[in-house]
Amino acid sequence: MNLTRREFLKLGSGAVVFLSFAGHAAADGTKIPVLMYHDISSRRSEKETLSPRLFAAQMEWLYGMGYHAVLFSELALLHRDTAERTVVMTFDDGYTSFMDYAFPLLSEYGFKATINVIGEHMGGFVSGNDPRLSWDECRFFAKSGLVEIGCHTYGLHNWYGRQSRSHAIDVFNEKLAEDLAIFQKIAVQELGQRANVLAWPYGMHNKLSIEIARKAGMHFILNSDDGYFAMNGNQLDIPRLTISNDTSLKLFRERIEMRL
User: At what angle do helices 52-64 and 5-21 cross, to 10 degrees?
Assistant: First the structure.
């Protein structure tokens, strides 16, 4: 019988998990890699873009090594013996490439992910030829049970991109409550529920920003700081690992496993 690489990984995953768990005991402070993806494309050259081939290799490696990808709300339900083989995947900005390259593999491997969308960009184009997911597509993903729709603000991502960081934080906070209220209202209309995950645009936030977001119903707030999320850590200030074309498969493996 001839097996594809993916079929081989599926058949062998149980043995890999057994070997991987041997000699390990999860601690209360187990560190979870929260992965930050953006666009998956062979055509784009931005630093945060990842090629489909490299993304597929990363997903195959995770599956073959017995990793599970869960939603933020599921972290509290993890058993001690599975927490060390867990990652959280996030996709910022709502690129349509998620539909073409990410979702098929998530479905294949049973991985879950959070897409943090920009409300103002839903179903539109950015910079002329940069399509973003629509609410209809997000409804489809959400119904799969594999995808949660998070917030990347309604319009502040685009606004902040034109500002000086040192000047913008006070104005950003003045606009934040109204911006999140607009996003939540539309999320309820389109998805039937409010978002409980927020990713800061460009990592922009301070303590006041976090408090405003918490009052807006955000239970998990993501920054852009490089690091791992401890199981007993602050879920209102979650660091992430940026994954891009600069992240070779070797480096990806090292970043995932160096926290064990």
Answer: 50
